């Protein structure tokens, strides 16, 4: 046993054990770091404004159609043309959307680029269409739909 | 004696004990490196991605020889490029305006499509050193916690869930097309003579899907108003085998409820399609108590006049492991 | 006696135990798994919130008795608190779509060129893990009249309202 104590050359093994442990800990820290970057990058994927863009386009399509109905109705009661009524209502929509999205720090521009509105009595003709430009910018993502073609005819 | 050569063999044996121990640990401590690192993150992505494609995309098909393409891949299931279930009314635009609203035809094709095709098109696999390793998955459409049955297909694809492994799960709320419905306002439903307590609805057979009639705005004429029964061409139908009755209170959800009928309740009656197999005119009569209908026939309300697609709220769950 | 030939077994075993213990401690430490898990929960929660709003906004009338626009149009303009629910129609439908979750709903709109935010459904204070989803609706004179709401909108005006849903799990 005494000889066993004196024989010290085996220590190199336990030393290498220590070395391996240290490298494992280093490795684990690296793995964790990779995970955290993975977490942040997937968080970035989460922050891709998919829902906002979809909300803006679908709301604009929906609103354009109901604004057209309202413009037609107003045309019956006031003496402005359908186009003028439409422009005035769309302008309100544009301003309010812009203000609401500004508080999220997003820049939203919706503008009417062209329209072809022909109506008989209370219905729009099948080829009635408006062309709307939409752009969205939240600082990271820039989305533009130019033009968004919205058909009024039913 | 020359002792120098022995050191090598001692060292070799000692280090092999250590190496064997490391190998043993790597092998038997579960979840070390492999599933803890690459696996879980990728699984989560796979589940999220799959749920998004299925719920929000209408899919895409294309044919290289004729250069035809569109989102109506359910009509060309062998040429599908992307599997998406969202309904789309413009097959040429690549997007749908109705995400989360799923088409029945697409869903049925999704149930029928080849297993390899699903794995490839939805990307439910991982490449490990050049070899393809398929994930295992379970995609289910649930109503009240149970898989839906649509035209005899149970809306579940994939394997049964394991008890003991890391599962990435994403649940989506979707609207599922389950058939068709004809929605009536009770005030415009026809009856034989004004103020009688029954309504007549005509239907031209044969039926390919179950008939669902939905009625709102009842003219309740006294307390204890209720639906009594339904007859088809004069013969009384049985409440469980021939039709099912659901009632929705204002702002509520459809439930099996035969209690008192209120003005704002919505009644949904689904008739089994096997009742309407021949090519003839059928007349369904709905009998009520203390509910009157004023519009007098003939020229009765017909089912086909305002038949629309019937949607039900369901949960789409995608689980990947 | 020749003791040089002895295997360095004890050292080998000691090193093996050391390595095994390190590995076990590293893998058991929760930090490796947690962020991933939480991220998935966040994604799930946010997705559910948007799904619920999308569904309520786009569902055909055969599915919901009142869609999101109609619910908002019918608001009585009274700010609500935890006892008093401002939009029972929306609350009941959200409750059905999101069982097991808690939520608050705010409405944001432009009034006299200033932004106004009002609580309409309050179920408590959201926890740290809550997510926010929003969807815009557009009201007109006609839709407010049809839903018997208290919004004051002239016949040649429209009002864009943002419905903000804060969702969390108990």
Secondary-structure blueprint:
The complex is a heterotrimer of chains A (154), B (321) and C (170).
Chain A: H1 2-6, H2 11-47, H3 50-77, H4 82-102, E1 107-116, E2 119-120, E3 123-124, E4 129-137, E5 142-151
Antiparallel strand pairs in A: 1-4, 2-3, 4-5
Helix pairs in contact in A: 3-4
Chain B: H1 4-28, H2 34-56, E1 60-62, E2 69-70, E3 80-82, E4 101-102, H3 104-112, H4 115-121, E5 125-128, E6 131-134, E7 137-143, E8 146-147, E9 149-150, E10 153-154, E11 156-158, E12 168-185, E13 190-191, E14 198-204, E15 211-216, E16 226-232, E17 235-236, E18 243-248, E19 266-271, E20 281-289, E21 295-296, E22 301-302, E23 307-320
Parallel strand pairs in B: 4-12, 12-15, 13-21, 14-22
Antiparallel strand pairs in B: 1-2, 1-3, 5-6, 7-8, 7-11, 7-23, 9-10, 12-23, 14-20, 15-19, 16-17, 16-20, 18-19
Chain C: H1 9-28, H2 34-58, H3 68-73, H4 88-97, E1 101-111, E2 114-121, E3 131-140, H5 141-147, E4 158-169
Antiparallel strand pairs in C: 1-2, 1-4, 3-4
Write structural notes for this entry:
The complex is a heterotrimer of chains A (154), B (321) and C (170). With 154 residues, chain A is α+β, with helices and mostly antiparallel strands. Chain A has 4 helices and 5 strands; from the N terminus they run ααααβββββ. Chain A folds into 2 domains: 10-45; 51-151. In chain A, 59% of the residues lie in helices and 21% in strands. Chain B is α+β, with helices and mostly antiparallel strands and 321 residues long. In chain B, the strands form 6 sheets. In chain B, strands 4, 7, 8, 11, 12, 15, 18, 19 and 23 form a 9-stranded mixed sheet that branches. In chain B, strand 5 (125-128) and strand 6 form a beta hairpin. Chain C starts with 8 loop residues before the first helix and ends with a strand. At the B-C interface, helix 1, helix 2, strand 12 and strand 23 of B face helix 1, helix 2 and helix 4 of C.
